[in-house]
C-alpha cells in the first residue's frame, strides 16, 4: 500500500527528464505527505485516540492528516494561525469548491484558529510556539499515550519510514533503467523529504555503485531558513541536500504570473498537472539549472509530491490576477 508509484518522462527545458509520480500513490493519500505519514498508517497505535497537527489552513498536510485520522478512527485537532475569509466563504457556497480545507472539514477535522489575543499566547511569536503551549495543556488533560502530536508538515523522525521506502524505490528503478548518474530534484518547504532522501542514499552508498544526489530549492523563507530546517533534523551536513536557486527570492503563497505561465506550459506539453504552490518555483529553478549546463551529463528525476487538491484555491487566484493584468 502506498508504494511503487510510476515514473513518467517529459520534455522540459530542452531535454528529457523523469517524473516520479507520487501524486498517483492513492486517490486520497498521495504525495510527500503520504510518504511522511506512512509510518502512522502502517503501524498500530492502540492507545492513541487523538492526533494534533498544525500548519496552514490550505496545507496538503491538513487534508492528509484528516484522511489518516479518518482511517484510524482518531479525532483530529489542527491548529492554524489564520483562516482566510475566502476559505470560510467557500464553505458557505452551494456548490462548494473542493480544497484541502473543505475536504478536511468533511473528514471530520477540527480546524482551530489560534486566538492570538489570548494571554495564553502572549510570549508566542510563531505557530510552533503556540503549539508548545497547547501541548502542555493536552498532556495535563489527557493520558500522554492517547494523544499523538505531529509537527507542521510532518517534520519528524517518523517521516523516515515512508521516505526511505521512496529512496529504495528510486534505487531499484535506476538499476532497472541502467542509470549510473542520477540527480533527484524536488522543491522544499521544511526540507524533510529532501533531507531524509539524501540521508538514505548516503547510507546506501557502500551497497551500490550508483552516483546519486538530491537537489532542492527553498519555497518558504529562503535558503537560510531551509538550512536551519535541515539542521533541526540532522547536523550531519553529508545528509543535507544541495540547495539550488535561480537568483530570485520568492514569498510563499504570493502569485507570480511568470511561474503560472511555466506551470501552464508544462501542463499543455506533458499532460501532467503539478501543484501551484511549490512546483512552479521548483520547475523554474530546475529550468534555470538545466539551462546553465550543470546537469548535462546526468539523468534527472523530478519528484511529483502531489498537493493537487490545493489547486482548487490557487488556480482561481491566478486566473483573476491574469485577467486584471490583461485589462
Could you characterize the architecture of this molecule?
The chain has 327 residues and is an alpha/beta fold. The protein folds into two domains: 7-31 and 158-326, Rossmann fold (3-Layer(aba) Sandwich); 38-149, Rossmann fold, CATH 3.40.50.1100. It has twelve helices and ten strands. It has helices at residues 31-36, 38-42, 60-72, 85-92, 100-106, 127-141, 160-176, 192-204, 222-233, 257-270, 279-291, 311-326, and strands at 7-12, 15-21, 50-54, 75-80, 110-113, 147-149, 181-188, 211-218, 242-243, 299-304. Strands 1-2-10-7-8-9 form a six-stranded mixed sheet, with helices on both faces. Helix 3 links the parallel strand 3 (50-54) and strand 4. The termini are far apart. The mean pLDDT is 92. Belongs to the ACC deaminase/D-cysteine desulfhydrase family. It comes from Shewanella holmiensis. Keywords: Pyridoxal phosphate. This is 1-aminocyclopropane-1-carboxylate deaminase/D-cysteine desulfhydrase. GO terms for molecular function: D-cysteine desulfhydrase activity.
Write a concise synopsis of the structure shown:
This is 1-aminocyclopropane-1-carboxylate deaminase/D-cysteine desulfhydrase. The protein has twelve helices and ten strands.
Poorly predicted regions = none
Domain count, please report it. Answer: 2
Shape descriptor: globular
Number of helices: 12
Nearest-angstrom radius of gyration?
A: 20 Å
CATH class of the largest domain: Alpha Beta
- Estimated helix fraction: 40-55%
Spatial strand sequence of the major β-sheet: 1-2-10-7-8-9
Largest sheet: 6 strands, mixed
Q: Report the span from N to C terminus.
A: 49 Å
Structure classification: alpha/beta
Strand content: 15-25%
Amino acid at each position: 500500500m502506498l508504494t511503487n508509484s510510476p515514473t513518467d518522462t517529459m520534455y522540459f527545458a530542452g531535454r528529457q527528464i523523469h517524473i516520479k509520480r507520487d501524486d498517483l500513490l492513492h486517490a486520497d493519500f498521495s504525495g510527500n505527505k503520504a510518504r511522511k505519514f506512512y509510518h502512522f498508517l502502517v503501524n498500530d497505535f492502540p492507545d492513541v485516540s487523538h492526533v494534533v497537527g498544525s500548519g496552514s489552513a490550505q496545507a496538503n498536510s491538513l487534508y492528509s492528516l484528516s484522511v489518516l485520522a479518518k482511517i484510524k478512527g482518531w479525532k483530529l485537532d489542527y491548529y492554524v494561525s489564520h483562516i482566510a475569509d475566502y476559505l470560510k466563504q467557500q464553505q458557505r457556497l452551494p456548490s462548494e469548491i473542493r480544497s484541502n480545507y473543505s475536504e478536511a472539514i468533511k473528514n471530520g477535522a477540527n480546524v482551530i484558529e489560534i486566538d492570538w489575543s489570548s494571554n495564553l499566547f502572549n510570549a508566542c511569536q510563531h505557530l510552533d510556539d503556540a503549539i508548545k503551549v497547547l501541548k502542555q495543556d493536552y498532556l495535563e488533560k489527557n493520558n500522554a499515550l492517547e494523544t499523538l502530536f505531529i509537527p507542521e508538515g510532518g517534520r519528524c523522525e517518523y517521516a523516515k519510514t515512508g521516505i526511505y521506502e521512496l529512496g529504495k524505490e528510486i534505487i531499484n528503478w535506476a538499476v532497472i533503467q541502467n542509470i549510473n548518474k542520477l540527480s533527484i530534484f524536488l522543491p522544499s518547504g521544511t526540507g524533510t523529504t529532501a533531507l531524509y532522501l539524501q540521508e538514505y542514499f548516503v547510507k546506501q552508498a557502500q551497497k551500490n555503485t550508483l552516483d546519486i544526489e538530491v537537489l532542492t530549492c527553498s519555497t518558504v523563507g529562503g535558503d537560510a531558513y531551509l538550512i536551519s530546517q535541515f539542521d533541526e533534523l540532522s547536523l550531519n551536513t553529508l545528509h543535507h541536500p544541495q540547495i539550488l536557486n535561480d537568483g530570485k527570492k520568492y514569498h510563499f503563497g504570493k502569485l507570480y504570473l511568470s511561474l503560472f505561465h511555466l506551470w501552464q506550459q508544462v501542463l499543455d506539453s506533458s499532460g501532467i498537472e503539478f501543484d501551484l504552490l511549490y512546483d512552479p518555483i521548483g520547475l523554474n529553478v530546475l529550468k534555470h539549472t538545466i539551462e546553465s549546463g550543470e546537469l548535462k551529463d546526468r539523468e534527472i528525476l523530478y519528484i511529483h509530491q502531489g498537493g493537487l487538491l490545493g489547486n482548487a484555491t490557487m488556480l482561481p487566484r491566478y486566473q483573476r490576477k491574469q485577467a486584471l493584468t490583461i485589462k
